Amino acid sequence: MTSSNIHVTLQQLEKLKYQARYFSFTEQQPVNSVLSGKNSSRLRGRGLNFEELRHYRPGDDIRTLDWKVTQRTGKAHVKVFTEEKERNTYLAIDQRSSMFFGSKGKMKSVIAAEVSALIAWQITGSGDRVGAFIFNDSMVKAIPAKRGNLHVSQLLHQLSKINNELNTGNTDAGQFDSLNNMLKKLTALNQHNALIILVSDGYGWDPRTTRYVKTLRQHNEVIACHVSDPLEQDLPRMPQMIVSDGKWQIQFSSQNPTTQRRFRENLQRQLDQYRNFTNKYRIPLIPINTLEDPVQQLRRALGRVY
């Protein structure tokens, strides 16, 4: 692996600004996008704000009639709405030690950073505000939603800084708690009509995670970018394999059929829990792997490949 595959640089993330094209997160989606179709949640767009109540005028849409006021006053009244011009987007970016893994291509943490950078550049380019909740094993860095290229550069600076703190010896036993800690802080914002994009491997998903995401989903759109590495789905067969979490290590034979079966069952159980939840609550799931170019993966998932 090259150094850029192990840790990201700010320059690496800023260059992605010029490739953040041919995909979007608006309600207008190509037919083969994961954000369209009956099996996924359609984005609501930017939303409408109530402005005033006034008398009916010829040409007004009768669907905007306020029947209660009309009945009470005896005169037709309509509700007037204005389009909300801006929408907040929050990236929940996973930089835990479980993301510091990659078999042939890039580390999952690097791919997550690049995907997040592409989305951030696309969002700010469309005129919306973008913020982030970057979390690792022990902390959550909250960045408020703002507009502009300078703000995105500052966001990516924090992301690259946290990414470069990852190494093979800093595993925290509480890494899975940080997923829920991040979601707790995100939920506390009490956002409405925001777009929330989770870029994570989904490890540590539990009933608390489900409750937090359900709460967020009630008033916002949620999209999940699931980052995975092919080796996670196929345990190599070795007579002696040593596995370490940075503090402890064990040695075992991965050629054992029982070990192989338990590994696949455990992984499949976690993936099924994640996918079943996103399907049940109509949360679009974008699969991201560590081998392919994240630019092409996003364009393919959102229906536009150039």
TrEMBL record:
Look up the domain of life of the source.
Answer: Bacteria
Gene3D superfamilies registered for this protein in UniProt: von Willebrand factor, type A domain (3.40.50.410)
InterPro entries listed in its UniProt record: DUF58, vWFA_dom_sf
Using the record's annotation, list all stretches that form the DUF58 domain: 52-270
Q: What is this protein called?
A: DUF58 domain-containing protein
Organism, as annotated: Thalassotalea litorea
